[in-house]
Amino acid sequence: MDADKAVLQDYLQRQREALLWKLDGLSEAQVRRPMTSTGTNLLGLVKHVAAVEQGYLLTCFGRPEAEPTPWMYGDEPNADMYATADESMTWVLDFYRRVGELSDATIAELPLDASATVPWWPEERRTPTLSHLLLHVIQETARHAGHADIVREQIDRAAGLSQANRNLPPEGEQWWAAYVERLSSIAESFER
């Protein structure tokens, strides 16, 4: 694998791990609980990212898929953003991991300038390269890993970049409560 491809692969893998880490230690109910006014939930984020990665790094290159994704093309709006009662956490996580393995094979086997066909994109952008789609999937995964950060913090206050690197000041709960209070006070001063 060439150096540029290895760097992109590494960034994608780090974002995958960050997203999956946000589900560690949580119950089926916790990962399914809608935490925003639009229903954002951890398991739905993983299901969505898995389907998006499969679409761009497998389907658009005519490669075998890990699983059919009828919810991406059905009549129900937002069906890719939650797991049905029949789609267990184990199933969704396994689907995401299988997509990752197949995507990694695409990345390893094709050159960065390999052309894909994205039928849902406008005609003038419909044939991007692997490097373009890889960047697109990294961005999509990072965006939703960021959503997962906020959702997980709302569930049980767990926060940070990764298990090995929280990337937050190592302060106690008292300090964080005072910090949030100080920020609230600043915000309130603009309401007066």
Notable characteristics:
6 helices; mainly alpha; single chain; globular; 192 residues
Give a description of the structure.
The N and C termini lie far apart (58 Å). 55% of the residues lie in helices and 0% in strands. It has helices at 3-21, 28-32, 42-57, 89-109, 130-156, 173-189. The mean pLDDT is 93. The longest helix has 27 residues, at 130-156. Helix 3 runs parallel beside helix 4. It is an all-alpha fold.
List the helices and strands and how they pair.
Blueprint: H1 3-21, H2 28-32, H3 42-57, H4 89-109, H5 130-156, H6 173-189
Helix pairs in contact: 1-4, 1-5, 3-4, 3-5
Q: So what's the overall shape?
A: globular
| Strand/helix succession | HHHHHH
The chain-level structural class is mainly alpha
Q: What is the count of β-strands?
A: 0
The mean pLDDT is 93
Gyration radius (Cα, Å) is 19 Å
Number of helices: 6
Strand content: under 5%
Biggest β-sheet strands, sense, barrel: none
Helix % is 40-55%
Which regions are unreliable across 5 or more consecutive residues at pLDDT < 50?
none
Distance between the termini: 58 Å
